[in-house]
Design a protein that fits this description.
InterPro entries: Glyco_trans_2-like (IPR001173), Nucleotide-diphossugar_trans (IPR029044). The protein has 17 helices and 9 strands. With 438 residues, it is an alpha/beta fold. Strands 1, 2, 3, 4, 5, 6, 7, 8 and 9 form a 9-stranded mixed β-sheet that branches. Helix 13 crosses helix 16.
Length: 438
């Protein structure tokens, strides 16, 4: 025993700095483990409820309007329209593809106009395309679609995303509850094995997005209704003014909806059976540029735009605490802690101590990843044969998440010092220039 202690002391180092690094490391787990446990408990609750539930037949069949934001998808938008035509939903589906900047996006406009909806083959499916000749951005397209939508339920969809044929049916059943203003859908990566970058994102989508939202939805703590795939009650959406100009319109709208939680006892469910398939960035550079925008937008929304809304009188205590922990700490503070901790360790610790510390951190996060992956396969996955192949990526996943966390710190610095949200490709500069400056 003494020999083992001596060996560990030799590796870990006896100086104060080395011991300080080992003392600080468990603090990460103190904050991260409770959230992981909360997600797993939610998944267990969802799984038990699902196993014991009895299938119900509902006559609730409201008209659904699908706003499809299009820009440069070309013929790919027809795959999205076809997947909506082939929905098993027995009610009416109104498809509203909005082509932004139609003057320069003629291939996309032609693809939309040439798409034919056979009334015999696809009854109760209606195509109402909108051409926006001058580019106004994603928010402009969504609000244009909303002004023409006639359905009780409005879906905001991306033009390059296709859907399982039970998607609309799965989404709509949640709106039978009048306390539901919005429903979050699930996204999967379509080009899974296009590159190692897309493969890692596929695993991230399944673990960090799909399964996490299942667990959090059980406690009414869904963090975001994705802009690529979300559904809303039109009457509620119109009352709050639709989508707001600026970037990250999905999280912006989610936070605005949540500001009514305390006063009206609302909830946002997540529908795991409503699945969309989208293409993820295929190169590391494309991926990092996407996350530069996504993670920088978090700082803009939480700190600059919605800081006055982050209080329990509007959100209710559960949502307020979740935003403090998940939104502020995990998304805004923890990336800097990890980034600084990693840099200091690289420059200060001796070689053996550094390797031992990083190996310890890696093994602990690998264990957490294996636990989440096992829970996903056994309780969550609706296509386990496809998802089990992602297990090959599990050993690398903790390193990939470290990269994401460190890059998040860079993205937020870009937002703090350069106001990165004003450089977004989601809208032209003149639209952002006219928006309220926060």
């Amino acid at each position: 025993m003494e020999q083992l202690y001596s060996m560990l002391s030799a590796i870990m180092g006896t100086d104060g700095l080395s011991r300080l690094f080992y003392m600080l490391f468990p603090l990460f787990l103190v904050f991260e483990l409770p959230l992981t446990i909360l997600v797993l408990l939610g998944v267990l609750r969802w799984f038990a409820r699902r196993r014991s539930s009895v299938p119900k037949t509902s006559l609730y069949r409201p008209k659904v309007s699908c706003i499809i934001t299009c820009y440069s998808e070309g013929m790919d938008v027809q795959a999205t329209l076809l997947s909506l035509c082939e929905q098993t939903y027995p009610g009416h589906i109104e498809m509203i593809p909005v082509v932004d900047g139609a003057t320069i996006n003629q291939p996309t406009l032609s693809a939309v106009r040439n798409f034919y909806v056979d009334p015999l083959l696809y009854p109760r499916r209606h195509l109402r395309p909108i051409a926006k000749w001058q580019r106004g951005g994603r928010v402009s397209s969504l609000n244009a679609g909303l002004s023409h939508a006639s359905g009780d339920i409005v879906m905001a969809l991306d033009g390059d995303t296709s859907f399982d044929n039970n998607m609309v049916s799965a989404i709509v059943r949640n709106f039978e509850d009048p306390s539901v203003p919005a429903v979050a859908g699930s996204l999967r990566v379509r080009n899974v094995w296009g590159s190692w970058v897309t493969a890692m994102q596929a695993l991230e989508y399944v673990l960090s997005i799909h399964m996490s939202k299942i667990g959090l939805a059980e406690w009414n703590l869904v963090n975001n209704v994705s802009g690529a795939f979300g559904a809303f009650r039109r009457s509620f959406l119109v009352k709050i003014g639709g989508w707001n100009t600026h970037t990250a319109e999905d999280l912006d709208l989610t936070l605005r909806i949540k500001s009514y939680f305390k006063r009206h006892d609302l909830r946002i469910p997540f529908e795991p059976e409503a699945i969309g398939h989208t293409d993820a960035p295929a190169t590391l550079r494309q991926f990092l540029m996407q996350r530069l925008r996504w993670d920088g937008d978090l700082f803009f929304l939480y700190v600059r735009k919605h800081n006055h809304n982050i209080n329990p009188d509007l959100l209710g205590w559960p949502t307020f605490l979740m935003i403090l922990v998940s939104g502020f700490f995990f998304q805004l503070v923890l990336p800097f802690i990890i980034f600084i901790y990693t840099l200091l360790a690289l420059f200060i610790l001796p070689g053996k101590t550094l390797l031992f510390l990083f190996a310890l951190i890696y093994l602990l996060y690998l264990l957490i990843t294996l636990l989440l992956f096992g829970a996903m396969l056994s309780m969550v996955s609706d296509r386990p044969r496809q998802d089990v192949t992602l297990g090959l990526l599990v050993p690398v996943f903790p390193l990939f998440m470290l990269l994401i966390r460190c890059w998040s710190a860079v993205a937020m610095l870009n937002e703090v010092f350069r106001r990165g949200h004003e450089e977004t490709s989601m809208a032209p500069w003149w639209v952002l220039k006219r928006a309220t400056r926060f």
